[in-house]
Amino acid sequence: MAIEDHKKIRWHKLLGLFVCFFVYLFLGAIIFHHLETENEDHVRVNTQDAKQRIRDDGCLTEEEVENFVAAVRKAVSSGIDPSANVTNPSNWDYASAFFFSGTVVTTIGYGRSVPTTDLGRNICLLYALFGIPFTGWLLATVGNFYCDVFHKIAATIENFIHKHCQVKHRRLRKFTLYTVVFALSYSLIVLIPSSWFCIMEGWDFDIAHYYSFITLATIGFGDYVASVDSKHPRNQNLTWVYDIAIACWYVFGLSYLAVLITAIGKKQKQGLTKVRSSMKIHLGKDDKQPPIGFGLNQHYVETLQDEITEDGKNKMNGEVEMSVIDDHQVVLSERTYKHIMVRNEGTQTE
User: How far apart are the first and last CA of the chain?
Assistant: First the structure.
């Protein structure tokens, strides 16, 4: 009963975090819409005026050419297509501002739409300052659910491989398991969304696959951006649904990436622990005798280092074979350890 209550609490926590996440995105949409729309309209009008002057005058002076280039450059830096007219959809309508907010808090940052006002940039800094840690909390929570589900799926697949595929070798069974889990995960997180983008954006599959991978890797080049580069016109309601779906894909995809990175880190830590354990070699059976591996205090060895290298220069080629593991312990080679013991025994005899 306690386990069921715990699961309910976790589900309520996850649901609450999702609600807060989307409320934060909607808040960002409202803020950035009001901060950036006016400036965007101004840039659009100036770009169209510059284009109209070229049509009217025909021949331009050098100054007029420079002004036109500056107008086009400013339009591009503001995320505006210079070839578009003033009636084209805004980059800062509520749906687009919602999409932008999602790219900020997930650190994807395509760079296609950016704040161009001083106030907008400053607000964006504060928005990211609070939004990124919160999103990290959400990703970690989703990652915990992933781990629970993956463990159950992995156990089921491994049992199937062992019983029905007659794979008895443990390492081969593990390799097959990891391959199957990776293929399923990659299909759910990357390949299926890529097919979806092909339909919604009118892209070829290779472009959609490229976009999905680059996005979830948080590289975010910005050469292709879903919901921005669509070849198919959409009504406002469908755009909202589409942008919300993309935000959910961000969360689940990035959570999977976080779980994967954490798993790799744990494997490396386990490997390092095994290496350290294998270095715990003792000379003799005397419990009071310090080990060759761990146990010798670093300060103790550093105090003896000068004396050892001076007294035993010919025997040890002038160096102590010592590796510092952390701030408190070191690893000595067997030859160095024996030399310390022989020296200490000689000192005690004297």
Answer: 72
Helices (H), the chain: 2-57, 62-77, 94-105, 118-164, 170-186, 192-201, 205-216, 236-278, 298-311, 313-316, 334-349
pLDDT tens, per residue, the chain with 350 residues: 445 555 655 778 888 999 999 999 999 999 999 999 998 888 888 888 777 777 777 677 777 778 777 877 877 777 777 776 666 778 899 999 999 999 999 999 888 888 989 999 999 999 999 999 999 999 988 888 888 777 788 778 777 777 777 666 777 777 888 888 889 889 999 999 999 999 988 899 999 999 999 999 988 888 899 887 666 666 777 888 999 999 999 999 999 888 888 877 777 777 667 666 655 444 344 444 444 444 444 455 555 554 444 444 434 444 444 444 444 444 455 555 555 555 555 554 44
The residue count of the chain comes to 350
* Residue written as token pair 């494997």: 267
Q: Which two tokens stand for residue 212?
A: 């999905």
- Residue 223 is encoded by which pair of tokens? 């050469």
Which H or E element spans position 324? strand 322-324
